[in-house]
Design goal:
16 strands; single chain; eight-stranded mixed sheet; Phosphoenolpyruvate Carboxykinase, domain 3; five-stranded mixed beta barrel; 2 domains; about 300 residues; alpha+beta
């Protein structure tokens, strides 16, 4: 599953260099906090448009689960793809709880046991700088979350009746379409949701990782989970409840930055099992129209 790289700025902005600066900020991922130190950019020109309303100036009095120091460097760490090709990420498990994370213009590591990490960024072109930092933060956030009883899931999160409903599936399945057709229901995200199964009742957290969501629609919050729906395009709208084993396999296929990067993580399977034991999982056969909500509302 390639990382998401949708344009959120004008083409001119994406080609321009990131304005110089130096900033420290905290980025919450549900119950976790990632602290970024020494990012070579400024708050107003980069951090605010990318990560508000989540980011806040680093607070030394607040405990951070992962502290990431930033450096500037030169060079390409992973060979560039052909024109139009997907960005590549490499993750290597170096020791128990320690990982190396590289992409084209970024080289970093993190140690989930000590809660420390470092990332070197080598290209200040806005699009490459943003992509490099976010790819590191997504992978690091996923590996950290799994150790804390959570995981990032590639899905849309729609709020209905005080609960969050997850809509997931492979690229092109219709997550953005389902999100758009769910209005006026509020959405947590159109790309990534943090699932917390550390307590008795699984919960969904909004996180600062988006697909095409405009900044004005970003929201924070934590909500109980009401159901998970794998999107399958069909000629009619209907629901099919999945058994536990099939549900675990189906949900696992939408958890990024682990299996598809060649990692094995025994704890992740247990977390997905806890989710599927407590939250119903369905195949949602839908016609790419808002009529699928009739099926969900009837549950």
């Amino acid at each position: 599953m390639p990382p998401e790289e949708p344009p959120r700025e004008s083409p001119e902005t994406l080609r321009a260099p990131v304005a110089p600066g130096r900033v420290d900020f905290d980025l919450p991922l549900g119950p976790l906090v990632v602290r970024v130190l020494g990012l070579p950019a400024d708050w107003d020109g980069f951090v605010a448009p990318q990560y508000l309303p989540f980011a806040a100036p680093a607070d030394p009095a607040r405990r951070a689960d992962l502290v990431v120091s930033c450096r500037e460097g030169t060079g390409v760490f992973v060979p560039l793809p052909p024109p139009g090709g997907a960005t590549e990420i490499e993750v290597e498990r170096q020791a128990s709880g320690r990982y190396r994370v590289r992409s084209h213009w970024q080289d970093g590591w993190l140690d989930v046991a000590s809660g420390t990490g470092e990332v070197t960024l080598t290209d200040r072109v806005f699009a490459r700088f943003r992509m490099s930092l976010e790819n590191y933060l997504r992978v690091a956030g996923q590996l950290l979350a799994i150790e804390r009883g959570c995981f990032l899931m590639h899905s849309s999160g729609i709020l209905a009746g005080g609960r969050c409903l997850l809509f997931f599936g492979p690229s092109g399945a219709g997550k953005s379409t389902a999100t758009a057709m769910s209005q006026p229901r509020r959405a947590l995200s159109d790309d990534m949701v943090l699932i917390d199964v550390s307590g008795d009742a699984p919960a969904a957290h909004a996180v600062p990782f988006y697909g095409l969501f405009p900044p004005a629609e970003r929201t924070r919050g934590t909500f109980p989970l009401g159901g998970a729906f794998r999107l399958r395009q069909a000629a009619e709208d209907r629901l099919e409840r999945l058994g536990l084993a099939r549900a675990v396999a189906t949900v696992s296929a939408s958890i990024p930055f682990v299996h598809e990067l060649g990692l094995s993580h025994e704890g992740l399977t247990a977390l997905v099992g806890r989710l599927c034991e407590r939250v119903p999982v369905y195949d949602l056969h839908f016609t790419r129209s808002a009529r699928f909500w009739d099926q969900i509302d009837a549950l």
